[in-house]
Amino acid sequence: ARLKMPLATARAVTTTAPTTAARARTARRMTTATRAASLSAYLPADTYHSLPKDGDVTFLHTMVRASNLEATMAFFSALGLVETRRKESQNGKFTLVFMASCQGAPEIEITYNWPDEATGETETFAPPSRSMGHLAFAVDDIYAKCEALEKAGIVINRPPRDGRMAFVISPDGISVELLQKGDALEPREPWKSMANIGSW
Amino acid sequence: ARLKMPLATARAVTTTAPTTAARARTARRMTTATRAASLSAYLPADTYHSLPKDGDVTFLHTMVRASNLEATMAFFSALGLVETRRKESQNGKFTLVFMASCQGAPEIEITYNWPDEATGETETFAPPSRSMGHLAFAVDDIYAKCEALEKAGIVINRPPRDGRMAFVISPDGISVELLQKGDALEPREPWKSMANIGSW
């Protein structure tokens, strides 16, 4: 009983279609039930339910590879993401760690290939080419977030001089854009006059 | 009045905290209002509201660059994404097209830098390096989706032999994973015995 139309449309149908009062009540109950199920199961990692409005395609994750799993997890943790699930493959000799703002939100899948058993060498990669731009997250308070990132030892490559936008890069060179939710904050020191560092 | 905790937790608090009946009613009303606002504004593109459960960080988009905007849009359209918004910059000489499963869902931001005015040459890129893996989408019916992609002239690099997983690549070499929602479908021809093509 997945609802295939936007919620607003579904509601309009519920209230305007020529049904009996009883059928209307049932329809309302179904809409409420669907809404509750969708919210609590918003992009759930293992079952791939959609929000009603997603249609037949649901965005799940962006996969990035890490040469150092702990460093990459520390970076995304400082950003505010949490580990939502993890898979270790003895056969494939890799670990997948999924991180998101919360359980059920769109995820970053971090692939970590285990060091070579013979040489102990870890896989290394070139940073992303220009075909891959960045991952973007909206944050409640871009100054507070950048301060937290700095405290975690992360360089703010593009400081939020405008109270609106910042860029940082992961240990493997993956660019992350931070955007202030809603209106830009009032420009404020030390950010206001802080120079760019490197590229992102 | 953004709710900072997962909905399930908020509900538990609403029903177990020692409040008066009136306060409990108000809390229930607020929860319902927040839930409705969040659903209709699920990851809205321009205002960056969160779902209640997202906390202070909300995933917005993954940005990819396109050497040919039409070809890239045709690829993501065949996948089932729609254009949600667009920005043209005369000064920056670029077009940004955002695509998602529906308005308000997590987006792909496609950056298209306009051809050089003097030479008419379009920017080209190396395909993504190994540090960037893929984008992943869950689909209602992986066979129907792969058939639609083939009809649109897209090569199925990793056919869904197992009724569960497929890979395709964008015109600029960006890898896209498709995953069957819920349980895997019954393995079925022609997919069952179809060989891999290229790498992804």
Automatic annotation (TrEMBL), chains A, B:
Family matches, as InterPro entries: Glyas_Bleomycin-R_OHBP_Dase, Glyas_Fos-R_dOase_dom, VOC_core
Gene source species: Ostreococcus mediterraneus
Reaction catalyzed: (R)-S-lactoylglutathione = methylglyoxal + glutathione
GO MF annotations in UniProt: lactoylglutathione lyase activity
Superkingdom classification of source: Eukaryota
PANTHER family: LACTOYLGLUTATHIONE LYASE, LACTOYLGLUTATHIONE LYASE GLYOXALASE I
Residue ranges of domain VOC in the record: 58-181
Name this protein carries in UniProt: Lactoylglutathione lyase
